[in-house]
Design a protein that fits this description.
Blueprint: H1 8-22, H2 26-42, H3 50-64, H4 73-81, H5 87-109, H6 114-124, H7 129-140
Length: 143
């Protein structure tokens, strides 16, 4: 990650696609984390995309309505943020799968055939080749 690197567009766009497709705000949190890390690592400010700002505004409004004396305060915070219990692990799995897909795409662009690229990615990520092939096919249709 460098200040001259503009790959952040691809990453943030991928997060937005997941957010819109699944209506899962965990993707806004991934974007927030990514933008913060980008600035820490490059020194370059990376503002939150407008869809993240919209989500934060909505969540702030809901959080400010919560009764702090309620016995269910913590549960209400999670509900206000829209985060389901299984969202984090599911989103991390999706990110890993996209990394695998982009790695295969990169190898293909450098001249590898698809089968060799899938087998190499399977070795890199210590996964069965058929699983990596399914991951590749899952995202290949969206490119």
């Amino acid at each position: 990650m460098s200040a001259k690197d503009d790959s952040y567009h691809l990453i943030l766009s991928s997060f937005e696609d997941e957010y819109e497709e699944n209506h899962d705000p965990i993707w806004a949190w991934h974007a927030i984390d990514f933008c913060s890390n980008w600035q820490r690592k490059t020194g370059q400010l990376l503002p939150y995309p407008s869809w993240v700002q919209d989500y934060l505004s909505m969540a702030a409004e809901l959080i400010l309505r919560i009764d702090c004396d309620s016995d269910t305060f913590n549960k209400n915070i999670g509900a206000s943020l829209g985060i389901r219990q299984d969202s984090i692990s599911s989103s991390i799995q999706t990110i890993r799968d996209k990394v695998i897909f982009f790695e295969i795409q990169s190898m293909i662009k450098k001249g590898s055939d698809k089968k060799a690229a899938v087998e190499t990615a399977a070795q890199i990520f210590s996964l069965p080749a058929d699983s990596v092939h399914k991951i590749y096919e899952r995202f290949a249709g969206s490119v």
